[in-house]
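Complex record, two chains
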Amino acid sequence: MQMQLLQDRIRKDGQIKEGNILKVDSFLNHQIDVSLLQEIGKELKRQFEGKEITKILTIEASGIAIACIAAQYFGCPVIFAKKTKTLNIAGEVYTAKVESFTHQTTNDIIVSKSFLHAEDKVLIIDDFLANGKAIFGLSELVRQAGAELVGAGVVIEKGFQEGGKRLREMGIDLHSLAIVESMDPATGSITFRKED
Amino acid sequence: MQMQLLQDRIRKDGQIKEGNILKVDSFLNHQIDVSLLQEIGKELKRQFEGKEITKILTIEASGIAIACIAAQYFGCPVIFAKKTKTLNIAGEVYTAKVESFTHQTTNDIIVSKSFLHAEDKVLIIDDFLANGKAIFGLSELVRQAGAELVGAGVVIEKGFQEGGKRLREMGIDLHSLAIVESMDPATGSITFRKED
C-alpha cells in the first residue's frame, strides 16, 4: 500500500530531471527529514505487521538512514552492505555484484558472514527501486547466508522500470510506499500508480 | 563527558587490530545496534543542551546512522556530505578535501549549497575521530556556507592521535563519548581517558 504523506512530499519537493531522474535530495538522500523517515518507518512496520524480522538489511549510503530509523519500530539491528571495488577474501564475506542505474557503475557489495546467519529472518529496506539490481544483490546475500528473506520495503519505486515487476515475479514480498508510474521533466508532473 | 554504556560496549565487542585499528563493526558501522544509537543520541543531546542547532552535518557512510538517530532528539534535519572523486561544478556545492586514515585515500567531500545556509547553526556528528581530517573538512563546508559551527559530537575518539587536540585548539566545542587513550592488540586491553 502506498503512503499519501510521502506522495505529497514527492510532488512538493521532488525534482524531475531528464533521463528519468527523480531528485529527492532535499528530504531523502542528501538532506534528510528525520520526521518523515519516522512516518516511513512506522508505515513499513504496519505493512509487515505480524512478520518476525530479526535483521534489517540495506546498502550504503542512502539506505542507511531509512533502515536505521525504521529499525526502531521493528526492534532489530541493521546491517548495511558495503560497496567495494576491491576483491575480498573469500570465506569472510557474502558478496554479490550490483549495477547502479544512477552512477552507471558496477560494485561488489559485501556483508560480513559474522552478521548474517541461517536463522535470520531478513527485511531488505532501500530508498529507490528502479531496475531492481540493488535489492536483487541484497537478496543474493540473504540466500548465501541461508537466511529467510521476509520481504523488501522500498520508499520510492520507479514503476515504469522493470525492477518491481521482476522482484514480485521472483516471489519477493515487495512493499513500495510510492510507485511512480510516469513523470514529465517538461511540466514537472508526476503520476503515481493507482491501487486496486 | 564520556559515556559508560558505550565504553562497556567497546570493551565487550570492540576488536583491536594491529595498526591502531579498533573494529566496532558488530554494533556501530556495519551491523548497527539501533538501541545503542538511541542512547548515544540522547547523550549528545544532553551534552549540547541549551544550544540552538538547526542542522546536523555528517559524512557518508557510517556517520549517517548516528546522525539520523541523534537528529530525532535535536528535532532538526541531517545533511550528509558525499564523498566523490569527480570534479564538481563550481558554484553548486561546497567542497573540501579529506584524507581517510582507514582507507589511505583522499576524497573530495561535497554538500549542495541548497541545504547549508548562513543562518544555520550546525552540529557535526561522526562515528570516529582519529587524525581529525573528516571533521576538519566538514567544518570547512560550514565555514564556506557562512554558517555557525556550534560544535562536534563524536562517538569514539582515538585520543592517542592528534585530531582531537587539534580540533580543540581550533576552538571547536568537541564532545567525544569515548576517548581511547591506548589499546593493545596483543592482550585486547583498552584504556579510556580519565576525566577531571
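Note: Chain A has one domain: 4-192.
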